[in-house]
Amino acid sequence: MRIDTAAGSILCDPWVNPAYFASWFPFPDNSQLDWETLGQVDYLYVSHLHRDHFDAKHLRDFVSKDATVLLPEFPTSEMEDELRALGFTKFLKAPNEQVVELPGGLKIMIQALTSPTDGPIGDSSLWVEYDGVRLLNQNDARPADLSVFAEFGHVHAHLLQFSGAIWYPMVYELPQAAKTAFGKQKRERQFDRTWRYIDDLKADHVFPIAGPPCFLDDALWQFNDIHGDEGNIFPDQSVFLAEYAKVGGTNGIVLLPGSVAEVTTEGCATTHPVPVAEFFANKTAHLEEMRERKRAIIAAEKASWRHPEVDVLGEMKRRIEPLLDESIYLAKGVGGPVRFDLVGTDDAGGETVESIVVDFPGKEVRPYADEKVRYRFRTERALVEHLLHTGEVDWVNSLFLSCRFSAARIGQYNEFVYAFFKCLSEERLQYAEGWYDEHERAVDAEDITIGDWVVQRRCPHLKADLSRFGIVEGDQLTCQLHGWKFDMASGRCLTSVGHKIRAHRADATATQAG
């Protein structure tokens, strides 16, 4: 998205090239826009380092290096370091949640989210004001609430995510009926969260952005929402409008590549390169044409992955074991071995499988020894060879988001597994360990009442305000921000290990007081 004002222009998250092992492409296709012109801007804002937001090749080739980068206040310097390596030299480090006035009366504020589960150590939203018109580019950030943005006046344009951006439940080795059921739940939670944010901010106009991706490789084609699968987690913008209408939403505006929306305090006038309804009515044809056009790009990417010279077990030991030695909270949180089944081919063309275990209690990487594991991932050996060859420090936002794997687990979701594999560097690991240490020690003393229950105000997961996001049904509480569930009677988290909640029945409080 590009924001133009009389006081300057801001280019936000320009993503054009495929991401995550050539699995994700932007949809609708924006690669044929005039990027030579669009990249000549005064300011650049990249919300976070996910590669469907941080497109290094496009930033290097098409965005003016005279642009000043509006930099979120993240806990590590990775984003600034990567942008400097691409040739950017001008940075404005925005203090978190503080309004900064730029020349000409343009005002911006950036809210940075900094838990280890927010992007790879960070996600953010951008608030912009010029001449009394205010815009919030929330993209796919998930703040606990939006009150900080509303404090500075009524927002006229709210741009936010509504679609899925993960591998669950498609990659899990489950019966199709179970995948569909879990997918329906995920799809409904996504929309529920979106309605909550929209209701919080009450902007004049709502723009669905930040998704969905499309999948053009033949091996991933089934993930596109064109097959009548009610459990598909990647609904598009036209589906958003239909679902939004069901809850009374009448102010949604869809943008296509090349669309222009002129937002004022009085309204919004939008022009499109083609009619929006007509475009989505022909979605399958657009995807098929795009697939043929991008085949050579996917083939070239695939040809770069294989690195038979890499000793996978040896390199995993060298890189991961020192991090296991230093890990306290993440290793304890994982609590057991995690297995990788790496699939390759022998000289005769037959399938080979090498099974490697990352043993968190034992603090080592070793061959699989036929023991029981709670988490298992199966993927092409070439993908892990490529991760090790390139020194990738975030396997979650590369391998896992590619959906080029299958997974199985016993028991509940374990966020610590994914937190660790996002943090395969000294800097990231130390930050994550410190974050969990700080939050482990923090005592949330404030209570609220929801229905018949008294419960701590902040969700034990990522501190969402349960007065806004908490829903109680019987003895079960659901935090709508991420869909986490808790058994109120025992305090046990039903979604993941750990994260016990403090709760008791309201009538018990009255009895104690009496």
Automatic annotation (TrEMBL):
It comes from the Bacteria. One of its GO terms (molecular function) is monooxygenase activity. Keywords: 2Fe-2S, Iron, Iron-sulfur, Metal-binding. Residues 454-514 form the Rieske domain. This is UDP-MurNAc hydroxylase. It comes from Micromonospora olivasterospora. The lineage of its organism: Bacteria, Bacillati, Actinomycetota, Actinomycetes, Micromonosporales.
